[in-house]
């Protein structure tokens, strides 16, 4: 590397002997998520030590079944994402497909820091609660996505979305360890989103208790 140039980034050619996910190479698809030197991150944006004599240790995302080499099995993760119904839901569908659903600038601003999630699973696979309860606990990434739809002013199913998380595991296995926020390669804060869901859940339960 020339003087003043940034350190080199990891790159993968997709050679048959070295399977690894790659698509955008710009930190926007999440395909190349892996553990590099003990940190869950994206290979396409991770800078490695400028001293190329130093060893860079690369592993697949932790606590997931591995399809091959650096490719984890994301089936359960995607199934959990699908389960939260990550799309706008309207109770009056008579105008569906016939008009745009407008949103104020203020309401749109509330989604900043949420919609940027690329579902790379770096956060979920850094969470000890997800390691041991991935079959029941939705994990930071999916819960942040759930919150994104709960607070969307255009969505009519906030209470139903909260009701879906009422069991002891889906939401409440989060113990605010905050590994998720520390490792997110997009600089997002899943831990805060989960805390906001818990606050919404408390209000929802209190309202339900009083009829």
Automatic annotation (TrEMBL):
Keyword Transmembrane helix found: no
Broad enzyme group: oxidoreductase
Any coiled-coil regions, as ranges: none
Enzyme Commission number, as recorded: 1.3.5.1
Sequence ranges assigned to domain 4Fe-4S ferredoxin-type in this UniProt record: 107-137
UniProt-recorded Gene Ontology molecular function terms: 2 iron, 2 sulfur cluster binding; 3 iron, 4 sulfur cluster binding; 4 iron, 4 sulfur cluster binding; electron transfer activity; metal ion binding; succinate dehydrogenase (quinone) activity
The entry's keywords: 2Fe-2S, 3Fe-4S, 4Fe-4S, Iron, Iron-sulfur, Metal-binding, Oxidoreductase, Tricarboxylic acid cycle
One GO process term, biological-process aspect: respiratory electron transport chain
Cofactor(s) required, per the database record: [2Fe-2S] cluster; [3Fe-4S] cluster; [4Fe-4S] cluster
InterPro entries: 2Fe-2S_ferredoxin-like_sf, 4Fe4S_Fe-S-bd, 4Fe4S_Fe_S_CS, Beta-grasp_dom_sf, Helical_ferredxn, SDH/FRD_Iron-Sulfur, Succ_DH/fum_Rdtase_Fe-S, Succ_DH/fum_Rdtase_N
GO CC annotation terms, alphabetical: mitochondrial membrane
PANTHER family: SUCCINATE DEHYDROGENASE [UBIQUINONE] IRON-SULFUR SUBUNIT, MITOCHONDRIAL, SUCCINATE DEHYDROGENASE IRON-SULFUR PROTEIN
Record-stated family: Belongs to the succinate dehydrogenase/fumarate reductase iron-sulfur protein family.
Identification of the protein by name: succinate dehydrogenase
The organism's taxonomic lineage, starting at the top: Eukaryota, Metazoa, Chordata, Craniata, Vertebrata
């Amino acid at each position: 590397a020339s003087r003043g140039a940034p350190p080199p980034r990891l790159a993968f050619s997709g050679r048959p002997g070295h399977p690894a996910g790659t698509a955008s190479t710009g930190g926007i698809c999440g395909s190349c998520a892996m553990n590099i030197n003990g940190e869950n991150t994206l290979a396409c944006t991770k800078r490695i030590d400028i001293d190329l004599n130093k060893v860079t240790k690369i592993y697949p995302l932790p606590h997931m079944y591995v399809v091959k080499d650096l490719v984890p099995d994301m089936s359960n993760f995607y199934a959990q994402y699908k389960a939260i119904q990550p799309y706008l839901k309207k109770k009056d569908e008579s105008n569906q497909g016939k008009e745009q659903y407008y949103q104020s600038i203020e309401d749109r601003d509330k989604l900043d820091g949420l919609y940027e999630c690329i579902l790379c699973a770096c956060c979920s696979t850094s969470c000890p609660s997800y390691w041991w309860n991935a079959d029941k606990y939705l994990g930071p990434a999916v819960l942040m996505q759930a919150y994104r739809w709960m607070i969307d002013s255009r969505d009519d199913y906030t209470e139903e979305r909260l009701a879906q998380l009422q069991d002891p595991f889906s939401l409440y296995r989060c113990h605010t360890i905050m590994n998720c926020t520390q490792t997110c390669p997009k600089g997002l804060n899943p831990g805060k989103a989960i805390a906001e869901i818990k606050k919404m859940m408390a209000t929802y339960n209190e309202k339900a208790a009083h009829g």
